[in-house]
């Protein structure tokens, strides 16, 4: 899980996003059996519990360039600040928080 987290931090630090497919291929995690999704949820839950933005916000679908529905369900279930808005707004807010946080080498 640490390797995947490091990839997400590096992605955010450069103000970029990556795709689910790219991360499952590079890390040997199967999207079809949900392993990547479980790991992303674990990472983001840990980040939230430590008062940091949800790192999984930088992992997006190729077709929409936004996270999947699981990200939005998790953000709302964790009570992320501002999560009561629509998905596009939540994505923009959390991605900005994540990019800023990681760019400051925290």
Quick structural overview:
With 106 residues, the chain is mainly alpha-helical.
What does this structure look like?
By secondary structure, the chain is mostly helical. It has one domain (2-103). The protein has 5 helices and 2 strands, in the order αβααβαα. The chain has helices at 2-13, 20-27, 35-49, 69-78, 87-103; strands at 18-19, 59-60. The chain has a two-stranded parallel ribbon. Helix 3 (35-49) packs parallel to helix 4 (69-78). The radius of gyration is 12 Å and the shape is globular.
Topology readout:
Layout: H1 2-13, E1 18-19, H2 20-27, H3 35-49, E2 59-60, H4 69-78, H5 87-103
Parallel strand pairs: 1-2
- Report low-confidence residues grouped into runs of 5 or more: none
Radius of gyration: 12 Å
Secondary structure category: mainly alpha
Range of strand content = under 5%
- Sketch the major β-sheet: 2 strands, parallel
Q: In which range does the helix fraction lie? A: 55-70%
Number of helices: 5
As an assembly, this protein is single chain
Task: Provide tags for this entry.
two-stranded parallel ribbon, mainly alpha, globular, 106 residues, 4% strand
């Amino acid at each position: 899980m640490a390797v995947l987290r490091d990839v997400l931090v590096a992605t955010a630090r450069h103000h970029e996003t990556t795709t689910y497919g790219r991360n499952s291929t590079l890390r040997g995690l199967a999207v079809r059996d949900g392993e990547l999704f479980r790991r992303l949820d674990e990472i983001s839950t840990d980040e939230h519990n430590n008062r940091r933005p949800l790192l999984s916000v930088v992992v997006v679908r190729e077709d929409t360039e936004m996270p999947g529905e699981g990200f939005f369900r998790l953000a709302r279930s964790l009570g992320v600040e501002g999560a009561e808005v629509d998905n596009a707004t939540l994505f923009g807010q959390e991605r900005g928080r994540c990019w800023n946080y990681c760019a400051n080498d925290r």
